[in-house]
Amino acid sequence: MKIATVVLGAFASMLVITSCVSKKVLKGEQVRYVELQSAYNKLQSQLKDCNDLSAEGSRNKAALENEIASLKKQVDFLNNNNSQALKQLENLSVISSSQAESIKKSLDNIGAKDQYIQGLQSALNRKDSLNLALVTNLKGAIGNLDDKDINIKVDKGVVYIDISDKLLFKSGSYDVSDRAKEVLGKVALVLKNQPDIEFMVEGHTDNVPLKGNGLVNDNWDLSVKRATSVVRILQSQYGLDPSKMAAAGRSQYLPIADNNTAEGKAANRRTRIVILPQLDQFFKLLEKK
Known about the structure:
This protein is α+β, with helices and mostly antiparallel strands. It has 7 helices and 5 strands, in the order ααββααβαβαβα. The protein has helices spanning about 1-90, 95-140, 165-170, 180-190, 220-235, 260-270, 280-285, and strands at about 150-155, 160-165, 200-205, 245-250, 270-275. It has a 5-stranded mixed beta sheet with strand order 1-2-5-3-4. β3 (about 200-205), α5 (about 220-235) and β4 form a beta-alpha-beta unit. The protein starts with a helix and ends with a helix.
């Protein structure tokens, strides 16, 4: 009986030990499974990357092959042109010396004319650049003055500065206001920095007849006197070279707006400074032809 009890006890102990060992083994296998699954997923991702690189490589290869084919066509085209040019040279070799000299003169004339055209274009581009710089400097010097009082623009390669007579003069008068003198000073500063520039000051009026008052006879007279008033100030107060200036009166005959409205009349009453184009430069180019 004791022996049986001992045997049963031993058997029970073995079952307990075996059960513990099995759980440890199972847990270890589970851990290993997770590790293997992670490794598998990583390999799958690497395989996908390899496939993507392979596809991209195939596309790049196809693009390069297309580019090579295109370049080959260009080379063939150039070779064909060269062959034709050589044939033309062979044909030209049989022309007479007088014909060859005539062809040479024609080519020289074409080259000279092309050079002449390029010179004119270069001069025009330089003039446009100078005009742009001049307008930029003028606007920068004058500042944020109302466009109704002063307007700076380029039209057909000529720079115009339009100053409203409301800013410059009282009605029917040609005495320049103090505020206008300040603006003229800013304009003069820019013009003085360009000593080669010549300009004309033009007086303009609306179409309202001006009754003579002993000082001013009519709109012609008023427009001229206003222009000369501005020129005198630019010369005497701001030191501009009088040989570079001209004064002119245009009366009512060059309006920029409709004289049938008050706004149009106000726009037409203006003094315009016209930066004169330096035509002598172009005449010199023409003389070289």
